[in-house]
Amino acid sequence: MSLPEAFTQRLEQIVPRERFGNVLSTFDLPKQVTFRVNPLQTTPEALEAELTASAIAFERIEWGVLQGVYRIDPADKLRLTQTEAFYRGHFYIQNLSSMIAPVLLAPEPEETVLDLAAAPGGKTLILASMMQNTGWLSAVEPSRERFFRMCDNLKSQGVTNAHTYMTDGRSVGKKCPLMFDRILLDAPCSSEARFKSFDEKSTMFWTLHKVKETSKLQRRLLLSAFDALKPGGKLLYSTCSFSPEENESPLQHLLERHGEHLKTLPLVLPFDNVQKPLTRWGKEIFDERIQNAVRILPTDTIDGFFICLLEKSKNA
Ligand code: SAM
Q1: CB hemisphere CA count around 239 (13 angstroms)
Q2: Is the pLDDT confidence value at 64 over 80?
Q3: Domains of the chain
C-alpha cells in the first residue's frame, strides 16, 4: 500500500527539500498516543495517580502553554480507554497539534466564543476549560451523527457553558453578526495529515477535485466567521491538510475581501517542526500577512497542521 502519487508529488513542492524525506516517512508509522488532563474534572496530580494505579506507563510532556499533557506507547491505547479515568472523562485523547489551536486562540473566562466546525468537540473542551466553564461558548456542527457525538463528549467531560447548534457554519455570520470575542474555525478539510501509507481507507476519498471543492467551503466559512466576529475580536483558522488550496488560499480570499479590517498575529509554538507558509502556489501570490501563519510538519508524535491567528480591527 502507498500514498496517492499526486499527493506525494504536491507534498514535495510544499515541504522544504531537506525535510521532505523525514516528513514522508512519518506516514509509515503508527503515531504515539497523546492525551491531556481535563481540568474541569480533575488535576494532573490526581490523573497521574489514577494512571499509576491502573499500571499505565506514561511520559509527561513538558509544554509551557499547556499543562497536563502525556504520551503513552500506542500498544497501551486500548488499556488506557478501559480505565476508570477514561469513563469518568478525566482526560481526552488528542494529538498535540490539535491541542495547540484552541490554546493559541486563548479564550478567557466570561467571553463569548464560537467553535464554528466543532465535532467531535476535542477543541471545544479545551476552549471550555480555558473559559473555566463561564461565559458563552457556541459549538456548531451540521453533521447529525457527529453533532450528537460532540454533545455526548461535552457532557461526559463536564462542559456546562456550551450551547450546541446543528447548523451549517456558513449561515452563522449572517445570523449572529459581530457577536463573538473569539472564533475557532478548525475547518472541514481533506485531512491529508491523517493519511497512513498502511491504511488504504485513510486516503481512499482524496482527489485534487475534492481539495478544490473543500477550499470553496473553507472560503465561505472564513467569511461567515469574519461577519460573526466582534470588532477587536480574534479568529483562529486551522486545518489538518497540507494543500495550499485549503490553507493559504482561503486566507488570501478573506484578506482580499476584508483585508483593511484584518491583521494576522505572529505565533510562538513550543516545538520547531514548523515551516513558514508558502509565498505563492501556481499563479497565486499570497498576501505578506499570511507569513505569520505556521505549517506544522509531522513527526512520530505530532500531526501535520496549519494555523493562522487573525485580529479584526476595532473600527470594523
Ligand atoms: N474541531 C473538531 C475537534 O477538534 O474535535 C474537529 C473539526 S473537523 C476538522 C471539521 C468539522 O466540520 C467536521 O465535524 C465536519 O462535519 C464539520 N463541517 C463540515 N461542513 C461544515 C459546515 N458547512 N459548517 C460547519 N461545520 C462543518
Answers
A1: 25
A2: no
A3: 96-312 (3.40.50.150)
